[in-house]
Write a structure and sequence with these properties.
With about 160 residues, the chain is an alpha+beta fold. The protein contains 3 helices and 6 strands. It has a single domain, classed as 60s Ribosomal Protein L30, Chain: A (2-Layer Sandwich), CATH 3.30.1330.40. The termini are far apart.
Length: about 160
């Protein structure tokens, strides 16, 4: 056996350890910030450390106020307003702004109400450079009186 093989393997091992200590640790923190309803069995957001920035992945937000009461029964516009209020609170709590939102996914019970949703959305996002977006019409959400649910992802610069 070649005597250099163990030395090469040791060198590779040392290089891997050194590299692991140089690279930032990618950690995930689950959060439930104040100002949004207390979730049952899930977290409102997962924050992932990316080194110079952090990614914030939000659970689907619905029109519950901080006490867990539905806002805007039978009113798509009012429900959408509360949903974006919740998204903004979560993103702001993580040190970001709505300009840091890079992706929105909309689940609507009635896609014919899309203009009401857009009117509210446009008050919260940068309409010149809007985030990526997906819209899906669904037959039901987890409660019959919930008309809309929105997931969001943000990338927030550090420092």
């Amino acid at each position: 056996m070649n005597k250099r093989v163990p030395l090469i393997l040791i060198s590779i091992f040392i290089a891997c350890i050194a590299q692991a200590q140089i690279l930032p640790q990618r950690t995930v923190t689950f959060k439930n910030p104040p100002g949004v309803s207390a979730p049952k069995g899930y977290s409102h957001s997962a924050e992932i450390d990316l080194g110079k920035s952090k990614m914030l992945i939000l659970s689907g937000q619905v029109a519950f106020d901080e006490n867990g009461t539905l806002v805007g029964k039978d009113d798509m516009g009012k429900q959408t307003e509360q949903v974006f209020t919740n998204i903004k609170r979560i993103v702001t709590d993580a040190g970001g702004s709505m300009n840091d939102v890079v992706k929105l996914t909309f689940y609507l019970r009635d896609v014919s109400k899309i203009q009401q949703v857009r009117d509210v959305r446009d008050k919260y996002i940068n309409t010149q450079t809007p985030p990526a977006s997906t819209l899906v019409e669904v037959s039901r959400l987890f409660r019959d009186d919930v008309l809309i649910e929105i997931e969001a992802t943000a990338v927030i610069p550090k420092g």
